[in-house]
Amino acid sequence: MTDFILVDGDEAIFLPAFGSAVVTVKPGELKASGKPKLSDKNICLEGDESSVEVAGCNYISGGFVIPGVGTLKISKLASDQVAQKTKNSKPVMLVGSMFDAEFEVTSPAKQPAPPGPPVPDGNPKYKGKGNFMTTNMKWKAT
């Protein structure tokens, strides 16, 4: 199956559900390391997904209703998000289906516990999903 090749500046769109956590998501931007250009933009190669890091996203989880903050990242591409055939040393990235995402807590959400201080969320990471949105509507790969 052919799919569109990802290029510099394309967006990673994260879904808000990260297990029991609900994250106020923002899109992340891909930084391409591939030198071949499509429409004057460098192409994304396998490994460029690590360039996506979206800090400062609020979240809540279960009874932890006082929002915390964390960072969104791509943890693993789906098999259909990497081209099987390539002329480059590394395979090019494709729009594909859904990637695995991770939300790393930097400041935990808290649960009110009157009359004492709020109790912090003890979970350092949450797992979720996301997909890519591309500006390239011309070039495809398999």
Characterize the structure shown.
With 142 residues, the protein is mostly beta strands. It has one domain (3-131). The chain has no helices and 14 strands. It has strands spanning 3-4, 11-14, 17-18, 21-23, 28-29, 37-38, 41-42, 53-61, 64-76, 99-107, 110-111, 119-120, 125-133, 140-141. Strands 3-4-8-9-10-13-2-5 form an eight-stranded antiparallel sheet, with no helix packed on it. The protein is elongated and about 65 Å long. The N and C termini lie close together (6 Å).
Mean pLDDT across the residues is 93
Strand-residue proportion: 35-45%
Regions with little confidence, pLDDT below 50 for 5+ residues: none
Major sheet description: 8 strands, antiparallel
Tally of extended strands? 14
At a glance:
With 142 residues, this protein is mostly beta strands.
Question: What are the key terms here?
Answer:
two-stranded antiparallel sheet; 14 strands; mainly beta
Write the SSE topology.
Layout: E1 3-4, E2 11-14, E3 17-18, E4 21-23, E5 28-29, E6 37-38, E7 41-42, E8 53-61, E9 64-76, E10 99-107, E11 110-111, E12 119-120, E13 125-133, E14 140-141
Antiparallel strand pairs: 1-14, 2-5, 2-13, 3-4, 4-8, 6-7, 8-9, 9-10, 10-13, 11-12
